[in-house]
Every structure is written in structure tokens, then in C-alpha cells.
Design brief:
The protein is of the alpha/beta class. It is built from 15 helices and twelve strands.
């Protein structure tokens, strides 16, 4: 089987990499198509994965419309040359459109719920894989599984932390540190967001610095006062940095969930929120969710201070993580099985959703 995986974001590389590597061992060939976004190409080179880049994405509305036509055309051309049998992606309209034109199946994962994107790929997609806690009904082709995307690459079966990251960060033995993550708010679904104010970014650094060293990861240039806290770390070591940190604080839902499945407390600020971070708070106590309002920004900083005052913080959240892991399936094994056995796998899950329990760690 010849598989095209379209990855529009660095997180999508992580989501599919282990399943693709296993499929490769089983004799299947895969090709990753992508755009030049953040560190996506750097990760693909680092992992030695065969890929084709369609260039940079467009930021404004007219640019995005032009980009859809451009990337659709490039995807169709690459897929024909590759002679693809199946397409997989995380909500890629380009993969969906090309698959439909070539009369090939497109399997999508979904965890954001951005309907303006979903409507562009859903009519051309044969199966949409979502978490059990996903809060939207996407119709007859939706397949629910009990897990999170982040478990596909951060489950202890697939991920082992590299303690050398502490030397890379310049962190001394026994020194506690906090990671602050600020995003650019440039995606199409970010138009109504404003994020944490510059004043409160500075305040968070000042308050957290009383209890731990502060490191900042930011998609946009930082205020002069904050530049000395900026991290300089290769992207493939970011998960190790999160694993050994005492707290993740910021605006990224993906990194908040990554933090949760690694057993590090996370504070996430977003006006819309994410269904998975909501479950991670409600059911497991691993994430604290806040809006972007100034009142909630104040509350979130207070919560961060409260957590950092705890002496046994990491031990407490490690136990919470183990509780979560005992509930969830092996997402990588499930993805690999579903792709390799499609369409039989789709029929199986429709008739017997509990079949997924075969992928639960015992």
C-alpha cells in the first residue's frame, strides 16, 4: 500500500510518525506532503522521513483562498506521481480534495473542532477519527476512540525522556523551571483571540520567578523585558523540556495536552478551549483551563503560583498521569491498524466500537 500523509503542522508529524514507521516495517511505503510552517521541515529532516514541501502558507484571507487552489493542484500532481492508494491527515482539505478526484479514500483525524476547516474536507473524507470526548457530531463517518492525539507519540511505550535536555537548557541539578508558551494567533480560527496581555506576560514571569527559573517559547517577538528568558532549543527536544519542567503555562492547547500526558501540570488560556484539555481537567486534574479575559489571566497566574508552592508537585501529577494512562488505548497501534485494514477496520468500528479495547495496555 502507498500512503500519502499530509502534515500541515509540526504536531501532525508527531501524531502519525510512529504509526507510519510501523506501517513501513510492514512493507508499506509512505510519503509526507507538507507546507513550510514553523519547524515542520526541520522535524522531517531530523527523522529522515521522505517528504515534499509545497512552500509557505498564506496569512490573509485572499492568500488562503489562492493557497487552497495552489496546494490542491500540487497535492494532485504529487499523488499521481506517487500512485497513492490512500490519504491520511489531520483535517487536510488538500488531501481530501485530491483523494476524491483520484477516487481514493481519505482518512482524517480531528481534535480542534474548527468547523470552517471541517466543512472543507468532510464531504471528501471516508473516515474521521476523533477522541471519545470530542464534543461534536460529525456524522456517519465519525469513528470515536478513547485517547488523545498526544498519546500517539508521548505514551511511555513510544517516548523516553532525554535528561540531557537539562544541560541544553543550562538548568542546574535540582533546579526547578517553568515553561511559558505564547502563540502567534494567526490561524484562520484565531481571529477573535487576543491572548495574554504584554503586562500579564511580564507579571507571570515576575511571579513565577520567585519559585522557579522561567523559560519562554514564543511564536512572536517578545517584549524587550522578556527576551532574556527566551529558550534556544532544537524542536525535537521540546517534549523533554516539558517532561522535566514543573509547570507549563500559556496559550497552546496542543502543548497543554502534551504536558498533561507527560505528567507536568499545565495552565491553558483560550476563549474557546479544547474538549480534550477540558476532560484532562475534569476527569484527571492535569490541566487548568482559563479564558483570555483579564480576570482569568489574573486567576491563572495565581493558580501557577499556588502550584509552584507545592513541594511534591511532580509526584502528585505523575500519579494523575498514571491514572489517565490506565484509561486510554494505545493510539499509535489503533491508528496503524485502522489505516492498514481500511475499509474493513471502519466497518469493524461501526459494528463494534469496543473492538478498540484490544489496543488498551494491560
Amino acid at each position: 500500500m502507498r500512503i500519502i500523509c499530509d502534515a500541515g503542522h509540526p504536531a501532525h508529524i508527531h501524531l502519525f510518525k510512529n504509526a507510519l514507521w510501523q506501517l513501513g516495517k510492514n512493507g508499506h511505503r509512505f510519503l509526507i506532503t507538507t507546507r513550510d510552517k514553523e519547524v515542520t521541515l526541520e522535524l522531517l529532516h531530523r527523522y529522515g522521513m521522505e517528504h515534499v514541501s509545497f512552500g509557505r502558507r498564506y496569512a490573509d484571507v485572499l492568500g488562503k483562498a489562492y493557497g487552497m487552489l495552489k496546494f490542491d493542484s500540487k497535492m494532485l500532481s504529487v499523488a499521481r506521481r506517487f500512485n497513492a492508494d490512500i490519504f491520511i491527515s489531520h483535517g487536510s482539505m488538500y488531501a481530501a480534495h485530491a483523494a476524491s478526484l483520484l477516487n481514493r479514500p481519505h482518512i482524517s483525524t480531528e481534535d480542534t473542532g474548527n468547523m470552517e476547516q471541517i466543512w472543507l474536507y468532510k464531504p471528501f473524507t471516508k473516515a474521521i477519527l476523533t477522541s471519545e470526548c470530542f464534543d461534536r457530531d460529525l456524522g456517519i463517518n465519525q469513528v470515536r476512540y478513547d485517547g488523545y492525539h498526544e498519546l500517539a507519540y508521548l505514551h511511555p511505550k513510544y517516548y523516553k525522556p532525554n535528561i540531557d535536555v537539562l544541560n541544553m537548557l543550562g538548568v542546574r541539578a535540582g533546579e526547578r523551571y517553568v515553561i511559558l508558551r505564547f502563540v502567534s494567533w494567526r490561524a484562520s480560527h484565531d481571529l477573535a483571540h487576543y491572548g495574554i496581555s504584554a503586562q500579564n506576560k511580564i507579571r507571570a514571569v515576575r511571579e513565577f520567578s520567585k519559585y522557579a527559573r522561567v523559560l519562554i517559547s514564543s511564536e512572536t517577538p517578545l517584549e524587550n523585558e522578556l527576551r532574556k528568558y527566551q529558550m534556544t532549543l532544537k524542536p525535537e527536544f521540546m517534549h523533554d523540556a516539558i517532561y522535566y519542567s514543573s509547570l507549563l503555562y500559556g496559550e497552546s492547547g496542543t502543548m497543554a495536552s502534551e504536558s498533561a500526558v507527560l505528567g507536568t501540570p499545565a495552565i491553558f488560556l483560550d476563549n474557546v478551549g479544547r474538549y480534550y484539555t477540558s476532560e484532562q481537567e475534569r476527569k484527571y486534574g492535569l490541566v487548568y483551563n482559563y479564558t483570555e479575559s483579564l480576570i482569568d489571566q489574573d486567576r491563572s497566574i495565581e493558580k501557577g503560583v499556588e502550584l509552584l508552592k507545592k513541594v511534591d508537585l511532580k509526584e502528585e501529577f505523575s500519579a494523575k498521569r498514571n491514572n489517565m494512562l490506565s484509561d486510554k488505548i494505545d493510539v499509535t497501534a489503533f491508528l496503524g491498524w485502522f489505516i492498514e485494514n481500511y475499509p474493513l477496520s471502519h466497518d469493524t468500528m461501526r459494528k463494534n466500537p469496543e473492538y478498540q479495547l484490544r489496543f488498551k495496555e494491560r
